[in-house]
Design the sequence.
């Protein structure tokens, strides 16, 4: 079966374009408001949606996403309610891949097998679990494999040649390159280093490589798109939505995605 | 001795390395540096030299005659970690880690702290070894442990106030991890207890196990036999692991950990992860955690900042599950009373953390009777807590 992720990258490749990935926090500031934003993302040029599952202790995130998570928790968001957003979204969109993003404890608490089954049921395509490195993700990966879901691995500037094979072994869908050694919302990495890393990871994995962390402006989006199969923006969108509302967030998304989706050299 | 953790840092199903990929290479590098150092006699020669002349080891094993009389039962000995330089057991671990940092060529040291004891110990060793030191401390803890905050600053450390989450120890650890992820190549993260990703639980245990090795030799000398029980308070569990480790294979020695029950383990204001928590994943390890039905971390509460943590080191989770150690708890009120009792009877002002172990030690003394023999780990001294106690007594100082 061809997955939504594979179809998306095939479409982008055929058009000779890079893609655009938007991260939003599920349930921030409320279930209804974040769902409305989510539903509007594809028309604003988003190729893949990363849907955040909030956690009380997001040690890999900067303040923007941490605070978004705390707002989401305050509004009663749970793993199940984020999955409900996906279910709702799928009622009128069967194309845009949804990748969940979050931390291990809430899904460990639910049980990996149950989480995988529920994610599949709600039309989710994959997940990135930040604090499950390859050494610890075997159990969740097995559960995901049963449902043909992609457990996306992260590669980082500290992933050297010795470690890269461990990171890409058994990956599916795409590899997410974290372009700076740091937390979300940090400064962007150097373009030359990004280009190098993307090539290395693409060769090692045979998969598309999306690049995120630190990208905030259309200019940066375009720079990274020159090297990456897709560009991810999170904190900037979350911040725009929080401070200025849905229309402002979507306007930013339109600019970022248009900048990313220029034809590749 | 014990053949765990395994090569993946597992104590049974607990432990492991649950960190962002960015931290995996630095953690694996730390692990290999640690494995090399522990086999190197010159590393231990330097450790022993500092332990003796700088920390003041061995710490005495003191027969607490008046507490024993008061308890009307077993003989109570106190292992006097409160007499260490900087006033707690924390320096044993810091000594080991910063010597390792020196070996690895890292000059920027970061640490998290709750009561400030680990922060003070880290700032102290960093000053001694000429290293830069940044201590992450929750804003709430900065308020309740002012003397230690000032001590850290005097020692040349930068104290970063952490206002994320609940502004206590767990948030300080989140921020330390965030800093480490950002500055991994030049930074050594000196974790203050037997928690965190592998190799920390094992490494901190090894550096703290000097407590139990000394205590065993000392009690054999004083009483010509092993104790019936060893009792210690538990925040993350390092003073407890430090004194337990040497006795793990001595199956007749009961190992008893005392968690902070705050306002009671049947309320939602406590810090007793084993008594009131469930297995989960936080700060790099799988262990018992205080969490809600959705797997979100609950706030811990304890009057003692050093115990105010919603998790516990993974080896304790394992010892709990296999039944090798027993875990009980002590409320804020009991600890405050024990603080005053110990001060009046023995002339020893205990840390509020250590005071948690005393009520359960006295219970046990009664249970064991006059032939019994108990060692309680006096993990630290209470100078830092006199403001808190004065406040509770309505006294202005
Ligand atoms: C004196 C003292 N005892 C105990 C603790 C608790 O830590 P652990 O359980 O790691 O020994 C602390 C922590 O700050 C402390 O300062």
Sequence:
């Amino acid at each position: 079966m061809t997955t939504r992720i594979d179809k998306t990258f095939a479409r982008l490749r055929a058009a000779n374009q890079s893609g655009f990935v938007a991260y939003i926090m599920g349930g921030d500031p409320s279930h209804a408001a974040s769902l409305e934003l989510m539903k509007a993302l594809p028309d604003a040029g988003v190729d893949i949606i990363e849907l955040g599952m909030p956690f009380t202790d997001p040690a890999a995130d900067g303040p923007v996403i941490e605070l978004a998570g705390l707002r989401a928790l305050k509004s009663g968001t749970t793993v199940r309610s984020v999955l409900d957003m996906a279910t709702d979204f799928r009622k009128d969109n069967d194309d845009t891949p949804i990748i969940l993003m979050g931390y291990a404890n809430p899904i460990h608490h639910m049980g990996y097998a149950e989480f995988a089954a529920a994610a599949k049921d709600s039309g989710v395509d994959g997940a990135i679990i930040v604090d499950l490195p390859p050494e610890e993700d075997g159990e969740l990966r097995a559960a995901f494999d049963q449902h043909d879901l992609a457990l996306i691995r992260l590669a980082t500037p500290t992933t050297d040649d010795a470690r890269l094979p461990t990171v890409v072994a058994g990956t599916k869908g795409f590899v997410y390159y974290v372009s700076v050694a740091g937390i979300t919302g940090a400064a962007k990495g150097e373009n030359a280093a990004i280009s190098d890393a993307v090539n290395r990871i693409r060769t090692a994995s045979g998969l598309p490589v999306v690049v995120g962390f630190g990208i905030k402006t259309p200019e940066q989006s375009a720079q990274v798109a020159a090297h990456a199969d897709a560009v991810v923006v999170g904190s900037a969108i979350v911040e725009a939505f929080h401070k200025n509302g849905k229309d402002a967030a979507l306007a930013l998304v339109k600019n970022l995605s248009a900048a990313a989706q220029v034809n590749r050299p | 001795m014990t053949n765990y953790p395994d090569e993946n840092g597992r104590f049974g199903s607990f432990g492991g390395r649950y960190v962002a990929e960015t931290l995996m290479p630095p953690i694996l590098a730390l692990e290999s540096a640690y494995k090399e150092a522990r086999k190197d006699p010159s590393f231990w020669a330097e450790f022993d030299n500092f332990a003796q002349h700088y920390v003041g080891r061995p710490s005495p094993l003191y027969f607490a005659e008046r507490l024993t009389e008061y308890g009307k039962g077993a003989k109570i000995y106190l292992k006097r970690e409160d007499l260490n330089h900087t006033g707690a057991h924390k320096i044993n671990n810091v000594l080991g880690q910063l010597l390792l940092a020196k070996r690895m060529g890292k000059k920027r040291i970061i640490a998290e702290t709750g009561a400030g004891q680990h922060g003070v110990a880290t700032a102290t060793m960093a000053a001694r070894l000429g290293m830069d030191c940044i201590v992450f401390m929750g804003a709430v803890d900065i308020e309740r442990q002012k003397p230690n905050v000032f001590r850290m600053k005097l020692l040349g450390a930068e104290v970063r106030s952490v206002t994320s989450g609940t502004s206590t120890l767990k948030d300080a650890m989140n921020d330390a991890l965030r800093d480490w992820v950002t500055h991994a190549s030049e930074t050594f993260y000196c974790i203050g207890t037997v928690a965190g990703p592998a190799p920390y639980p094992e490494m901190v245990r090894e550096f703290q196990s000097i407590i139990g090795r000394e205590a065993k030799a000392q009690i054999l000398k004083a009483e010509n036999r092993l104790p019936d029980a060893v009792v210690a308070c538990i925040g993350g569990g390092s003073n407890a692991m430090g004194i337990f480790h040497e006795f793990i294979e001595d199956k007749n020695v009961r190992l008893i950990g005392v968690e902070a029950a705050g306002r009671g383990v049947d309320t939602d204001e406590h810090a007793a992860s084993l008594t009131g928590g469930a297995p989960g994943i936080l700060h790099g390890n799988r262990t018992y955690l205080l969490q809600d039905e959705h797997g979100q971390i609950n706030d811990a509460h304890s009057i003692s900042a050093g115990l105010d943590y919603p998790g516990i080191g993974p080896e304790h989770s394992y010892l709990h599950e296999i039944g090798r150690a027993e875990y009980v708890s002590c409320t804020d009120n009991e600890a405050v009373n024990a603080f005053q009792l110990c001060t009046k009877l023995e002339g020893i002002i205990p840390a509020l953390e250590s005071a948690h172990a005393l009520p359960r030690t006295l219970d046990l003394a009664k249970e064991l009777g006059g032939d019994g023999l108990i060692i309680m780990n006096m993990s630290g001294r209470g100078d830092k807590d006199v403001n808190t106690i004065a406040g509770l007594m309505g006294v202005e100082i």
Notes: The domain at 4-260 of chain A is CATH 3.20.20.70 (TIM Barrel).
